[in-house]
Design brief:
Blueprint lengths: L11 H14 L12 H8 L3 H13 L3 E4 L3 E4 L4 E4 L6 H7 L4 E12 L3 H7 L7 E10 L2 E11 L16 H8 L6 E10 L2 H7 L6 E10 L5 E10 L3 E4 L8
Parallel strand pairs: 3-10
Antiparallel strand pairs: 1-2, 4-5, 5-6, 6-9, 7-8, 8-9
């Protein structure tokens, strides 16, 4: 490993940033590698922990490193690419990338009244009743997203009785309940992780998250369910292919 040499000119934390980045790019530290603990690395480099943290934060912001609470700082694996050209489930996305998808069911609440936003999104009346499902989605046991799904109880009766740990919701809706999912209306935004969300997703509190709302429709353009999903920005890149309008 190339030793760190402090220069007389230039901001110190940016010099450290460049040194770490160089070791990532030349694959001295390969994806998934855990960096030495901050006290050890700062001592080895002859710098303060505050200076090291500034450098690490720059690299985290660029998606080259990520932190896991209680574990340390790691070199980022290639971010998962989410293509917004074809509607696919989380399970389908991860399997296509050779990863093993799984879920942790955090909450299931039946018989909920829809608020005005959900009434509009799902075309419901105030008398309708919803099932709420909250799951932490993982790939190779690494948290990738936090999802909250709302679905009218009459659409998929007894859905909450199914094992949603290993089963895809898309698969259940389409194959068990025989309701084809034909399209989705997706909107994207940005938000900050709450303390609880940060703990679940293994990121720092107030980290930036990508926030997606997806309304899924059947073949009659009737809303089936809506998914609210939050993704750590350093683990995903969203891509869109758009033809230019003709004429």
């Amino acid at each position: 490993m190339k030793p760190f040499q402090r220069k007389n000119d230039g901001v110190l934390y940016k010099q450290v940033y460049e040194w770490i980045r160089e070791h990532i790019e030349d694959r001295t530290w390969t994806p998934g590698t855990q960096l030495p603990p901050e006290p050890v690395l700062s001592k080895d480099l002859g710098i303060s922990r505050q200076t090291l943290r500034q450098a690490l934060q720059l690299l985290i912001n660029e998606g080259l490193l990520y932190r896991q609470q209680g574990k340390g700082t790691f070199v980022q694996n290639t971010r998962s690419q989410y293509e917004l050209t074809v509607l696919t489930s989380f399970t389908e996305q991860m399997r296509a990338r050779g990863k093993q998808p799984s879920s942790k069911v955090l909450d299931i609440q039946p018989n909920l009244p829809p608020d005005p936003v959900l009434q509009q999104q799902l075309g419901l009346s105030s008398h309708s009743r919803l099932l709420k499902i909250v799951r932490l989605r993982l790939a190779d046991d690494r948290p990738m997203s936090l999802e909250t799904v709302y679905i009218e109880e009459n659409t998929c009766p007894d859905l909450h009785k199914h094992d949603l740990t290993d089963q895809s919701l898309y698969d259940l809706v389409e194959n068990h309940y025989r309701l084809p999912i034909r399209s989705g209306n997706i909107s994207l935004d940005a938000t900050k992780a709450t303390s609880k969300e940060a703990q679940l997703l293994q990121v720092e509190p107030s980290s930036s998250l990508l926030y997606m709302v997806c309304i899924n429709y059947n073949d009659n353009s009737r809303p089936l369910f809506v998914t609210y999903a939050k993704y750590p920005k350093e683990r995903y890149i969203f891509t869109v292919s758009m033809p230019r309008r003709q004429g």
